[in-house]
Amino acid sequence: MTVRTLRLAASLLGLLFTGLVFLGLFMVGSAFSQQSELAQQSETSKPFGKVTEYGIYSEQNELLKKTTIIPNGAAVRFGFCFEADIQFFDDERYMMVEALEHPPVTGKEGGENAGYSVPRLFKVRGGIAYGCSGYRARDAADLRPGVWKFTISDGPDDVVVQEFTIQ
């Protein structure tokens, strides 16, 4: 090999090395950019919800009166319906937690109840979860005056909250 061939080979290797260095830097920068975009996406794709209907309902689950004030002293069914954006799941059902907090109610056997918290599956269509929640007072003793607070949550996030006042 001649000196000229060695210099040409060294130049080509230098260019190749420089190209690999730039390619590596580009890939590292691109990875950080993608991680940043994913972090922003996860922050903005948190579920959110909105109440679509609320009030007093019939036994056939038809809305009779849109209100957050529930009369005390009668057997009544009240509640709300909601939708929540859960675009990051494609399933037909999505599990969230339904909770109800209310003033203590004494049961027929003597125990007190101040609410509940249970996991529930809600229907999903097009990345939107739909559902309804409520309470059915069988008689006047089932209701206590005060605030009755329903919460639908997904992990630590409250997706939707609806309050009713019994008076």
Explained architecture:
- The chain is built from one helix and nine strands, in the order H-E-E-E-E-E-E-E-E-E.
- The protein is an alpha+beta fold and 167 residues long.
- Strands 2-1-4-7-6-5-8-9-3 form a nine-stranded mixed sheet, with no helix packed on it.
- Residues 15-42 have low confidence and may be disordered.
Name the CATH class of the largest domain. Answer: Mainly Beta
Question: What's the architecture of the largest domain, going by CATH?
Answer: Sandwich
Judged by helices, strands and strand pairing, the structural class is alpha+beta
Number of helices: 1
Give the overall silhouette.
Answer: globular
What is the total number of structural domains? Answer: 2
In terms of DSSP E residues, the strand content is over 45%
Ends apart, CA distance between termini: 101 Å
Please give the number of β-strands: 9
Helix content: 25-40%
CATH topology of the largest domain: Immunoglobulin-like
- Could you give a short account of the major beta sheet? 9 strands, mixed
Q: Give helix and strand order, one letter per element, not per position.
A: HEEEEEEEEE
* Radius of gyration (Å): 29 Å
Stretches with pLDDT under 50, minimum 5 residues: 15-42
Strand order in space, largest sheet: 2-1-4-7-6-5-8-9-3
Q: What value does the average pLDDT take?
A: 79
Sum up the structure in keywords:
167 residues; alpha+beta; Immunoglobulin-like; 2 domains; nine-stranded mixed sheet; 25% helix
Describe the SSE topology.
Elements: H1 3-44, E1 48-57, E2 63-65, E3 69-70, E4 77-85, E5 93-106, E6 112-125, E7 128-136, E8 146-154, E9 157-166
